[in-house]
Every structure is written in structure tokens, then in C-alpha cells.
Amino acid sequence: MASIFTKIIKGEIPSYKIAEDDKHYAFLDINPLQPGHTLVVPKRELNYIFDLGDEELADLTVFAKKIALAMKKVLPCKRIGMSVVGLEVPHVHIHLIPIHQVSDMNFGSGTAQVSKDEMKEIADQIKGAL
Ligand code: 5GP
């Protein structure tokens, strides 16, 4: 069965899309740790990031870098943190999170309250900075 992220990539499930190319897709996390929390995924569905080939992993990271640079331009933060967890969704993804301090990347703490309008506005801002 297709992963939830494959369904998002195919447009079967809506997302606040940031960018895509032929191999990658970036969109806002629906339960953001911080406003602007973005997920970057390869279109090829694979469970575990370290099962990616070297070139695929490098390409994914370079794509994530472009998104992170755009995020940093428009979101109030000290830097964009990058993390891989993958315990919930078995489709490789990188978390990009705007942070001021290390605790802003605490996956065990609560999520930020961001309205649908704010999500759309944030996605538009990041897209505009690409
Ligand atoms: P992980 O697998 O790295 O532990 O976490 C998966 C992440 O995907 C979580 O941060 C969760 O909020 C996000 N997520 C799960 N389902 C959806 C979804 O349907 N849409 C979006 N945009 N994000 C999702």
C-alpha cells in the first residue's frame, strides 16, 4: 500500500506544498514543532534513509539545503535544524525546523498551534524565497 507521503506527492491527499522536482517533494508538516516545520521526501518510497544509495542521499540533502536556505530567509529563527526520525511514517523524510534553541527540536514536546491560513501564508513565503 502506498505511504501517506506517496499519496501527498500524487496529490491524492492535500498538502501545503513548498517545492518539488522530478525526484523530491517538500511540504509543511501537518503537526509542526515550530511554524514552518517542513518535510523533505524522495518521491521513491523507501522506509529507511540509510537504505538510500549514496547519490540518492546526496541529492536529497542538496534539495533539502535549497529549501532550508529559503526558510531561513523568511522565518524568524537562528537557524534551520535538520533531523531524521522516521518512526511514524515509513517513507524517508528529513525534518527542517526553524529553531532558536535546541529545545525547539524536541520531538517529545507538544506541537505549535498554527492555523490553516498561517500554514498557507508560511508555505507561500517559503516558496517566494526559493
Ligand atoms: P517521523 O516519522 O519522522 O517520526 O514523523 C512523521 C512526521 O510526519 C510527523 O512530524 C507528522 O506530523 C508528519 N505527518 C504525518 N502525517 C502527515 C500528513 O498526512 N501530512 C503532513 N503534512 N504531515 C504528516
Question: What do you see in this structure?
Answer:
- With 130 residues, the protein is an alpha+beta fold.
- The chain has one domain (4-129): HIT family, subunit A (2-Layer Sandwich), CATH 3.30.428.10.
- The chain has helices at 4-9, 54-74, 116-129, and strands spanning 17-20, 24-28, 38-42, 79-83, 94-99.
- It has a 5-stranded antiparallel sheet with strand order 1-2-3-5-4.
- Strand 1 (17-20) and strand 2 (24-28) form a beta hairpin.
- The chain is globular and about 35 Å long.
- It starts with a helix and ends with a helix.
- The model has no long low-confidence stretch (mean pLDDT 97).
- Bound molecules: guanosine-5'-monophosphate.
- Guanosine-5'-monophosphate binds next to strand 2.
Which helices and strands, and how do they pair?
Elements: H1 4-9, E1 17-20, E2 24-28, E3 38-42, H2 54-74, E4 79-83, E5 94-99, H3 116-129
Antiparallel strand pairs: 1-2, 2-3, 3-5, 4-5
Helix pairs in contact: 2-3
Guanosine-5'-monophosphate (5GP) is lined by residues 4, 13, 15, 27-31, 39, 85-89.
Summarize the entry for a quick read:
The chain is 32% helix and 19% strand.
**SS-based structural class?**
alpha+beta
CATH class: Alpha Beta
Unreliable stretches covering 5 or more consecutive residues: none
Biggest beta sheet attributes: 5 strands, antiparallel
What is the CATH topology classification name?
Answer: HIT family, subunit A
**Number of DSSP helical runs:** 3
Radius of gyration: 14 Å
Distance between the termini: 33 Å
Domain unit count: 1
Helix content: 25-40%
CATH architecture term: 2-Layer Sandwich
CATH superfamily: HIT-like
Q: Percent of residues in beta strands?
A: 15-25%
Order of helices and strands: HEEEHEEH
Arithmetic mean of pLDDT: 97
Shape: globular
The unique ligands bound to this protein are: guanosine-5'-monophosphate
